[in-house]
């Protein structure tokens, strides 16, 4: 029996499935076909139904996106998936991720944000939020299970009945609804700050706003002008600019310094593409890393508890603990920070809980009283609150931003950067290889999170090791010595942490943290040292270290 052309079905293995990274789905735009975005949205909605997050009285799902070129097409696929699932799209237009999330939580509904955050324009992503907040890592398996059900359902349709052609794109164009909820979402977000920080506390402060293509560029300007600041917008771009607040490029650094010379501001501010990560530079154009930014916010807010990633500056952690703040270090990614905050709130319901990432994105886990005004919680990355807090801290202390940093923070410095499949010697690197590297340098016992090498012996999780564990951990140390050699300037290894990647502490207090991206061909190296120059030099050595690791893996696989 021959198959009729009209009975042809879309093959299950033809299209690449989207995968979760540290927060949300991301991939190259070419992999984010209309069908793939549609299927993942249908799966997320099935997950919401399964969890009881949607019912007859909750038919609305908020939708927004950033300013990259592929976002409108992807939003169209998401909106149609919402409609075909029996729900209504509350389209909020082009708004920051925290604006959409805050609006949706305020309205007690889920939201879907189309954004690639800080990554280049040839990539994009989809970020799901429940009515209670961000999707957590514990939610991902259930979402993916529902996505696979939606995928099977779609792939089983004969091609002539499918919405999609053989390339996974819509056969006919579907338009987005009007962004009739955009101004409501923006106003609720703006008033979150202007209703709390009253009486124009930043009056007579000149603040340069590097606008580029950040989706929140006008909203950020409106908020800071509402606080009384004289905002000077610069470098607005109609073309998408990828600004990474954790890996600040040479071009961005030069722009910040040029702006400081030309405008002589109190500070320079900007955000990444979806405006959930802040970038703050002092009056001299010097960038303040996100982990130190978070420490200054803690001085302003005085929380009882903070959750921060294991990659944070170690001196930031100790300075917080010296102030009596309980610190929990987590794996990297906002879902892990949120999980730690939620656990603390369960243990101590009345505690003031916050968290942040090393990219500067700040999460407020509980409501806060500021000058007898209530700042509502926002347990997702936000760029505006950290900028406000640090600038107010400097203004109230009659200090410049640089004086505030010098007087408040310890002299420990961080730097980070990546290799990818375009780096010389790393062309064969893949996301899967990154996992192999971490596995090669990790203990066989996955319960071991911290190893300390002392004069008395080896301790794992604070306990003396048994003979078997001792041997395995010694081998890991020897493997690391093969790459982090004395010839490359490294000293003895005194401890290794395995919470997220491989974090190595050396006897001279230098710290190196290795961590692969979960869904992209990138491998990041973080460094902490007593000088900025030393931290920068450590990260530069990735061009020698990582190719050596890759070469050893390839040679081992070739010999097996």
Could you explain how this protein is built, in words?
The protein is α+β, with helices and mostly antiparallel strands and 560 residues long. The protein has 3 domains: 9-182, Alpha-D-Glucose-1,6-Bisphosphate, Chain A, domain 3 (3-Layer(aba) Sandwich); 195-410, Alpha-D-Glucose-1,6-Bisphosphate, Chain A, domain 3 (3-Layer(aba) Sandwich), CATH 3.40.120; 414-559, TATA-Binding Protein (2-Layer Sandwich). The chain has 16 helices and 27 strands. The strands form 5 sheets. An 8-stranded antiparallel β-sheet has the order 20-27-26-25-24-21-22-23. Strands 1, 2, 3, 4, 5, 6 and 7 form a 7-stranded mixed β-sheet that branches. Helix 1 (34-50) packs across helix 4 and helix 8 runs parallel beside helix 9. The chain starts with 18 loop residues before the first strand and ends with a helix.
Top keywords for this entry?
560 residues; alpha+beta; Alpha-D-Glucose-1,6-Bisphosphate, Chain A, domain 3; TATA-Binding Protein; 3 domains; eight-stranded antiparallel β-sheet; 16 helices; 27 strands; 37% helix; disordered N terminus
Level-1 CATH class name of the largest domain = Alpha Beta
Which structural class matches the secondary elements?
alpha+beta
Euclidean distance between termini CA atoms: 46 Å
CATH superfamily of the largest domain: Alpha-D-Glucose-1,6-Bisphosphate, subunit A, domain 3
Quaternary state, please? Answer: single chain
User: What is the total number of structural domains?
Assistant: 3
Fraction in beta strands: 15-25%
């Amino acid at each position: 029996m021959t198959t009729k052309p009209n009975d042809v079905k879309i093959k299950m293995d033809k299209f690449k499935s989207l995968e979760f990274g540290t927060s949300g789905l991301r991939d190259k735009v070419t992999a984010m076909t209309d069908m793939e975005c549609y299927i993942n949205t249908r799966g997320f909605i099935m997950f919401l139904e399964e969890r009881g997050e949607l019912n007859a009285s909750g038919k609305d799902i908020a939708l927004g996106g950033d300013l990259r070129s592929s976002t409108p097409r992807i939003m169209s696929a998401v909106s149609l998936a919402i409609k075909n699932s029996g729900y209504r799209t509350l389209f909020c237009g082009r708004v920051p991720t925290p604006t959409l999330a805050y609006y949706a939580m305020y309205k007690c509904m889920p939201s879907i944000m189309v954004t690639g955050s800080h990554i280049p324009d040839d990539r994009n992503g989809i970020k799901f939020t429940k009515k209670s907040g961000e999707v957590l890592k514990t939610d991902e398996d259930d979402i993916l299970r529902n996505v696979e059900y939606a995928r099977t359902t779609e792939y089983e349709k004969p091609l002539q009945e499918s919405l999609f052609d053989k390339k996974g794109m819509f056969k006919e164009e579907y338009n987005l609804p009007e962004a009739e909820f955009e101004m409501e979402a923006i106003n609720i977000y703006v008033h979150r700050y202007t209703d709390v920080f009253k009486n124009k506390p930043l009056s007579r402060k000149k603040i340069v706003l590097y606008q580029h293509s950040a989706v929140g560029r006008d909203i950020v300007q409106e908020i800071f002008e509402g606080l009384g600041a004289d905002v000077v917008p610069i470098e607005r771009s109609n073309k998408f600019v990828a600004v990474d607040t954790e890996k600040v490029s040479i071009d961005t650094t030069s722009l910040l310094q040029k702006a400081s010379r030309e405008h002589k501001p109190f500070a320079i501010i900007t955000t990444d593409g979806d405006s959930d990560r802040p970038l703050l530079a002092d009056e001299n154009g010097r960038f303040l890393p996100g982990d130190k930014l978070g420490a200054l916010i803690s001085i302003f807010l005085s929380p009882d508890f903070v959750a921060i990633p294991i990659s944070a500056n170690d001196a930031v952690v100790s300075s917080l603990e010296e102030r009596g703040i309980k610190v929990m270090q987590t794996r990297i990614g906002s879902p892990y920070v949120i999980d730690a905050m939620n656990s603390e709130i369960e243990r101590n319901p009345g505690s003031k809980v916050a968290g942040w990432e090393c990219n500067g994105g700040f999460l407020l886990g509980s409501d806060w009283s500021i000058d007898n005004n209530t700042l509502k919680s926002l347990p997702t990355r936000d760029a505006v609150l950290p900028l406000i807090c640090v600038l107010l801290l400097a203004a109230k202390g009659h200090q410049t931003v640089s004086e505030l940093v010098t007087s408040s923070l310890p002299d420990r410095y961080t730097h980070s950067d990546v290799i990818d499949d375009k780096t010389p010697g790393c062309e064969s690197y893949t996301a899967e290889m990154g996992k192999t590297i971490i596995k090669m340098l990790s203990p066989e016992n996955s319960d071991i999170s911290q190893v300390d090498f002392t004069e008395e012996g080896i301790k794992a999780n604070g306990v003396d090791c048994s003979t078997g564990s001792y041997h395995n951990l010694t081998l890991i140390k020897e493997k690391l010595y093969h790459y982090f050699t004395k010839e490359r300037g490294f000293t003895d290894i005194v401890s290794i942490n395995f919470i997220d990647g491989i974090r190595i502490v050396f006897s001279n207090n230098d710290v190196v943290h290795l961590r692969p991206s979960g869904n992209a061909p990138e491998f990041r190296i973080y460094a902490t040292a007593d000088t900025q120059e030393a931290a920068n030099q450590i990260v530069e050595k990735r061009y020698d270290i990582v190719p050596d690791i890759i070469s050893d893996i390839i040679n081992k696989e070739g010999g097996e």
